[in-house]
Write a structure and sequence with these properties.
The chain is α/β, with parallel strands linked by helices. The chain folds into two domains: about 5-190, Aldehyde Dehydrogenase, Chain A, domain 1 (3-Layer(aba) Sandwich); about 190-315, Aldehyde Dehydrogenase, Chain A, domain 2 (3-Layer(aba) Sandwich). The protein has twelve helices and eleven strands. It has helices at about 5-20, 35-50, 55-70, 75-80, 105-115, 130-140, 170-175, 200-210, 235-240, 250-265, 300-310, 345-350, and strands at about 90-95, 120, 150, 160-165, 185, 190-195, 220-230, 270, 275-280, 290-295, 315. The strands form two sheets. The chain has a six-stranded mixed β-sheet with strand order 8-9-10-7-6-11, with helices on both faces. It has a five-stranded parallel β-sheet with strand order 3-2-1-4-5, sandwiched between helices. Strand 4 (about 160-165), helix 7 and strand 5 (about 185) form a beta-alpha-beta unit. Helix 1 packs across helix 6. About 35% of the residues are buried. It comes from Jejuia pallidilutea. GO terms for molecular function: acyl-CoA dehydrogenase activity. This is Acyl-CoA reductase LuxC. Keywords: NADP.
Length: about 350
């Protein structure tokens, strides 16, 4: 397959996904192979929700909307423009995926195939309904992919390179198991927001999207705030309040109740509003329904601290504080060229 053929296939996949990317599913008769795949994917969406209580209709729809927006000709062309992708000798790249949010491993899957390699996918048991079905659609619009996509639930074997994502513990296992192979190994990272007290109501409302989307389970979710010494949280809590229906979700409510009980029994100081807690803590990774915060006196000193801790941080959300900052409300809208852990996976794939 030529590069343009691969690009065209993913554009068509984007057209297919777009039908499911709004609250109301809308069939587009111009989309290829709908007669075979449309109803089947609706069923897979239902299965994904039943299998994983965190994968609500709203969160799956949000993920699909993100990928429908990404898989356009303009976006893919812009993404690949800096690279020379010619005459690649295909290798088999194992991709070991996390399962914290819907289709979380899709970018790695896309990157391997778009560069001309073969992909060997090992999915998390938490997220195994959607990608295999979308892969079949991809094979229908571009039969050249048929021998290039393999899914396995067994031990991964027979690969030339690996991209693996997991916890800090599994990352250490990955580093040992995959030693001697070209690899990208990702572990736990969290995202932070830096507040100055000058944020508008709209800024803080946008920040709530960074905190609550996907129940805070993604590495791009804000789990830690840095605030000035005299910061008043009243405006912050007011801006968060429109997310209060989240407490109606049983899994979230159970985590909220459990973590609140632990904090109270441990006599920790917390601030809470009935569905969400903040706690002063130096850690970056906070439990569900909780965001940690830490106070700072000097922005330059904070920058030095965050630079030293950069391997623990995925995104920095702020307004005019950092060179590579992300705007409030934008963490869950990465572009194709926004690489996890700032590691260029396409460059890696072209080097193996």
């Amino acid at each position: 397959m030529q590069l343009q053929e691969r690009i065209n296939a993913f554009i068509k996949l984007g057209d297919f996904i777009r039908q499911f990317s709004n609250e109301v599913i809308q069939k587009n008769d111009k989309v290829e192979h709908n007669a075979i795949f449309f109803d089947g994917f609706k069923h897979q969406l239902k299965l994904a929700q039943e299998h994983n209580g965190w994968f609500t209709k709203e969160n799956i729809t949000f993920a699909l909307n993100s990928w429908a927006a990404a898989l356009t000709e303009n976006n893919i062309t812009q993404w690949l423009k800096p690279y020379t992708i010619n005459n690649i000798q295909p290798k088999t790249v194992a991709v070991i995926m996390a399962g914290n949010i819907p289709l979380v491993g899709f970018h790695d899957f896309l990157s391997v195939l778009i560069t001309g390699h073969n992909v060997l996918v090992k999915q998390s048991s938490n997220d195994k309904q959607l990608l295999p079905f979308l892969s079949k659609y991809l094979e229908y619009v571009a039969p050249g992919f048929k021998d290039k996509i393999i899914f396995t639930e067994e031990k991964v074997e027979g690969f030339d390179a690996v991209i693996a994502t997991g916890s800090n513990n599994t990352a250490r296992y990955f580093e040992y198991y995959f030693r001697g192979k070209p690899s990208i190994i990702r572990n736990n990272r969290n995202s932070i927001a830096i507040l100055t007290g000058n944020e508008t109501v709209e800024d803080l409302k946008n920040l709530s999207e960074d905190i609550f989307r996907y129940y805070g389970l993604g590495c791009r979710n804000v789990s830690k705030l840095f605030v000035p010494e005299d910061y008043d949280f009243n405006s912050f809590f007011e801006a968060m309040y429109h997310w209060h229906p989240i407490i109606e979700k049983a899994k979230y409510a159970n985590n909220y109740d459990y973590n609140k009980a632990v904090y109270l029994m441990s006599e920790f100081d917390i601030l809470e509003n009935g569905f969400f807690m903040i706690k002063e803590d130096k850690s970056y990774a906070s439990p569900i329904a909780t965001v940690f915060y830490e106070k700072y006196n000097n922005l330059q000193t904070l920058k030095e601290k965050l630079h030293a801790d950069k391997n623990q941080i995925q995104c920095i959300v702020s307004k005019g504080c950092f060179e590579n900052e992300i705007d409030f409300g934008e963490t869950q809208k990465p572009q194709l060229w926004d690489y996890a852990d700032s590691v260029d996976s396409v460059k890696f794939l072209l080097s193996i």
